[in-house]
Amino acid sequence: MPEERELEKKRAELTTLEAELAERELELATLQATLHAFEDRYLRQVGALYAELDEVNAQIAEANARLHQHDQQAQQAADKARAQANESAQHTAAVQQESPKGKFQPSDELKKIYREIARQLHPDLARDPQDRERRHHLMVEVNRAYESGDLERLRAIQLQWQRSPAAIKDESVGAELVRIIRQIAQIEERIAAIETEIEELIESDLHQLFVRAEEAEDEGRDLLQEMASGIRERIAETKIGGFDVLARLIFQYEKSGNRNWRA
């Protein structure tokens, strides 16, 4: 029958696209996990020092505002510096509460099972909205397990899916043909979306810094440590520069007879 021949043709096309989609999803998930791990290292080694620098700048700005209590610009500068310092401190504290991620280096087995799962339960293979939602939630779990390198969790999700009724296909030729045609269109759209997302990640400042760090590592250098050393120098220089403001503030309060200048 013509419908059956067309169905076989579309099934073959879908199989090819499923493999391509799984590979592209793997590429995106690996890139995201790699950048998340690198961002974690950056925030711990460099971001914490930027937070310290922001705090020093805030203290100097606040001291200057006290020296010039009627200067609107000085007050605004102090408020802005304090807001920046508080934001940096909160961000740093949140990172420090979590365990260090370390460099993301997925094993071949981890990649293999991710590809298999993506081909089996990708949301774009759903038969209806309810099925799509279920697949979406499972893929969120899959991506989380992949990023944490949890091979056993990935295997458990895969086994859970294979045993579910949703994994069974039983439809008429016509209905199956329509479903596959729609799946092909959805997968093509998803592949295009993944490519756009990967391009945006590659063009991001974080990825550019990651590339520079990798190049430095190939040369036997630690770029983040170099950046950290530079910020430590800036902190020291900023503190030295702020001594004059602090000394003038102390002198002003002592001259006025107020010993509570730190308040």
Please specify the SSE layout and strand pairing.
Blueprint: H1 2-67, H2 72-96, H3 108-121, H4 129-147, H5 151-162, H6 173-203, H7 205-218, H8 223-255
Helix pairs in contact: 1-2, 1-3, 1-6, 1-8, 3-4, 3-5, 4-5
* Rg: 28 Å
Number of helices: 8
Order of helices and strands: HHHHHHHH
DSSP strand count:
0
Kindly state the mean pLDDT as a whole number? 87
Could you list the spans in which at least 5 consecutive residues all have pLDDT below 50?
none
Span of the ends, CA to CA: 88 Å
Q: What is the strand content?
A: under 5%
Would you write up a description of this structure?
This protein has eight helices and no strands. The protein is an all-alpha fold and 263 residues long. Helix 1 runs parallel beside helix 6 (173-203). The termini are far apart. The model has no long low-confidence stretch (mean pLDDT 87).
Notable features of this structure?
263 residues; mainly alpha; elongated
Brief summary of the model shown:
The chain has 263 residues and is mainly α. It has helices at residues 2-67, 72-96, 108-121, 129-147, 151-162, 173-203, 205-218, 223-255.
